[in-house]
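Interim report to the steering committee. The following record documents the input for Sugar ABC transporter permease (307 residues).
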Amino acid sequence: MAALLVSPTLLVLTVVVLYPTIMALRESLYGAKGLDPETGFISETEPFVGLQNYADIFGEAGDRFWNAFWNTTFFTVVTVGLETLIGVAMALIMHKAFQGRALIRASILIPWAVPTAISGLLWRWIFNSDGIANALVGRQILWTTEGFHAKVAVIIAEVWKTAPFIGLLVLAGLQVIGKEVYEAARMDGASPQRQFWHITLPLVKPALLVAVLFRCLDALRMFDLPYLLVGAQKSSVETLSMLAQNEASNVRFGPAAAYAVVLFVYVLLIALGFVRLLGADVVGDAGGSGRKKRRRASKRSRVEVSA
């Protein structure tokens, strides 16, 4: 019965995840159509090259690959870090009871609801040479060209769009914390800062870690925002996804698949490491075990606050 119930989900995962992954692995072992160096004739089929595409990634095309790799890692670390800080602040604001809270919640969530393509075009207009950004800083900066300012433009646009996502998940975690925990802390004389560090943060950590994990996996696959905001083949903002797309657009499907496989392995390792290090805080506990741990965490938080 269990196998029967999960079979539809397994079928969907096989079609949309497993099959494309296998085909990408297979495609990465073939070269591009064109002149066969051995025979001198034009090849009508993709020649089998084995691991040559991967050798080229870390060899001939190594400089461009490592530049895209570090750009991807830099964007992930910086954007997810800023989004976590801003998202937690948003969640705390949305959790407060005050007049007009529904309007504030709706306005905070609007950026996340805007499609990424629209968001990229919007920020491209803001970062234009005669746009709002230059008017605010009082300088003429070419934000959407090469340079570190292009990275800053992508980071600002990405944080603006996806910080509400973390805020929404953290808000869900805040709403399951019982009010009696805070009442007991106030009776013990705990300040708002101690309540945050010893009660709110430990009890909301599972929801926060899930949000950070989702954002890390999404940021590692960043493509559309830097592509629309700055453009293709810009070394300052080129990511691994953009590199794979560029190879595919030039009908080099083998190298493109190899880049995609490398990115897949990178994302997989980050996800496995995240779950391995954080364990139950990410995957969750079942039934009574989870409730016992929450009760122990709540009791431990009250003891720490009292101390």
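The chain has one domain: 24-282. The committee is asked to note this result when reviewing the revised timeline.
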